[in-house]
Write a structure and sequence with these properties.
six-stranded antiparallel β-sheet, alpha/beta, eight-stranded parallel β-barrel, single chain
């Protein structure tokens, strides 16, 4: 899967090319865009019925704060209700959200959207938030209803005390994808059995924070990445992401050191304080060309770090063309331009969108980048190469101490088939998150193959490399090489050199 997380209203509210902005129908009208990007599943933030206006929750205040707070309210008036834009509250779980429908029949419009997405090869994952007071059996009935009535493909479950074992062992949900922060596999599978179909996936922030530290060039950030790039458990999948509905967008991650949530009305006290972000030299908007170029490069780096990991990637809508919340990392109550995607950025940031589209296509083209089993780093098929190997300035040798911020990973295409007959290409990825340029050794390939650079976060120029030589990788950048067949002349020349 290539998962695309979106808010039903915010996704198309400002889109000028749809007839029903902010609705299920609007998503249908954006299917050509999703296909162009390469998306194979949409993950909908809460799209069941919930209250959008609610009184602010009471929080503990000092006597002085309380006096000042209520003194500012007009006489005889209560505090105005706050907008619940995201919907992570107890809801009316059996009904599609009426305000997300362009017609008086939200259930029919939702089903039509699912059907149309399926016809275009795109699955539908729904987010459901269940507070602790919702009964376990009730949760099961809710999930079954959306599967059998609306043909939803999976669910991202949010909340505590979710009956994951009950849902995972329900035979009628055997083909339904279930995402959660963790699963107790001992309660689900007997004797460490490996499921024939992995429908469970772990969805937590481990990958997100590790990538952000590596992207910032923090000390000690390489070793966690080496583990997470190949992480692929036997009994569950893993969902990888660098941003999520809460927290900074990708553009804000490289533009702000601090949160700017003043518009939420909570005096900037809400939201995560430490975002593992870096503004690249200036807080917020800037016209300085060197900073803008660095931010673009960092966004490209982030997308490649995500799309070259073995787990399932999840992209937040708008990240692919640089959408910003203006530094607000908790826009839960912003049903306005702060949260609605600004589609005009598609033209402004066309270069970045094209890069993301190319990176998604590259991942989908190469099954060695998304193997069904975890890579072993051993040559278990006796082809002369392990499935995955690490390299540095010298081939087959990687320095991975606390000060290291660069690594070369080679995937052997012999361990994955592009079809029934043909092996995948060899793939070599040079990650350099150090601020200085480094040379990376290009390991020797079989005699009839050569290296070719296909992706670079600094340059869009494709180049050929040579076996056993090195590639100079600029600071804070990533280069990807793939193996290519040598031409007849190149094979002849290589034979003459050998003689």
């Amino acid at each position: 899967l290539i998962i695309y997380e979106l808010h039903v209203r915010g996704f198309t509210k400002m889109a000028t090319d749809v007839t029903a902005p902010g609705t299920f129908l609007g998503i249908r009208e954006k299917i050509p865009y999703l296909k162009e990007l390469g998306i194979t599943a949409v993950e909908l933030m809460p799209s069941y019925e919930f209250l959008e206006l609610e009184k602010p929750e009471c929080r503990e205040m000092s006597m002085e704060d309380a006096v000042n707070h209520y003194r500012d309210l007009p006489a005889g008036e209560e505090e105005a209700p706050r907008i619940n834009y995201w919907g992570y509250k107890k809801g009316y779980y059996f009904a599609p959200k009426m305000s997300y429908s362009s017609s008086d029949c939200p259930a029919e419009e939702f089903k039509d959207m699912v059907k149309k997405l399926h016809q275009n090869g795109i699955e539908v994952i729904m987010q459901f938030y269940f507070p602790v007071d919702v009964k376990r059996a009730y949760i099961l009935e809710v999930i079954k209803y959306w599967v059998f009535s609306c043909h939803v493909d999976g669910f991202h479950l949010l909340g505590v005390h979710i009956p994951t074992a009950l849902l995972a062992t329900e035979p009628m949900l055997g083909n339904t994808k279930l995402f959660y922060t963790d699963f107790s596999c001992d309660e689900i599978y007997d004797n460490s059995d490996i499921p024939a179909y992995k429908n469970l996936a772990v969805y937590n922030d481990d990958f997100m924070y590790a990538v952000r530290h590596f992207l910032k060039s923090d000390e000690g950030s390489l070793q966690p990445m080496l583990d997470l790039w190949k992480k692929n458990p036997k009994q569950t999948g893993v969902i990888n992401y660098i941003t999520n509905y809460s927290g900074f967008t990708l553009a804000d991650l490289v533009s702000f050191d601090r949160k700017h949530n003043e518009a939420n009305g909570e005096e900037n006290r809400d939201g995560e304080t430490y975002n593992v972000s870096w503004n690249c030299g200036a807080e917020g908007k800037t016209r300085k060309k060197s900073i803008l170029e660095l931010r673009l490069k960092q966004m490209k780096n982030a997308m490649l770090l995500l799309l070259t990991a073995q787990g399932t990637p999840m992209i937040v809508s708008g990240d692919e063309f640089g959408f910003s919340h203006g530094g607000n990392n908790n826009p839960y109550c912003q049903d306005n331009a702060v949260s609605w995607l600004n589609w005009k950025l598609m033209e402004t940031n066309r270069e970045f969108f094209s890069f993301v589209k190319e990176a998604v296509a590259f991942r989908k083209k190469h099954p060695v980048l998304h193997r069904p089993d975890e890579l072993t780093m051993m040559d278990y098929i006796a082809c002369g190469y392990p499935d995955l190997s690490y390299h540095g300035e010298e081939a087959w040798k990687l320095k991975a101490d606390n000060l290291s911020r660069q690594a070369g990973l080679m995937y052997c295409g012999c361990y994955a088939k592009t079809d029934r007959k043909n092996d995948d290409n060899f793939i070599y990825i040079a990650y350099n998150m150090h601020w200085e340029e480094h040379d990376f050794a290009l390991p020797a390939l079989p005699p009839d193959l050569k290296w070719a650079k296909v992706l670079d976060t600094v340059s869009d120029r494709q180049e050929e490399g040579e076996n056993g030589r090195t590639a100079a990788v600029a600071g804070r950048s990533i280069q990807i090489f793939e193996s290519r067949e040598k031409t007849g002349k190149e094979k002849q020349k290589a034979g003459q050199k050998k003689k």
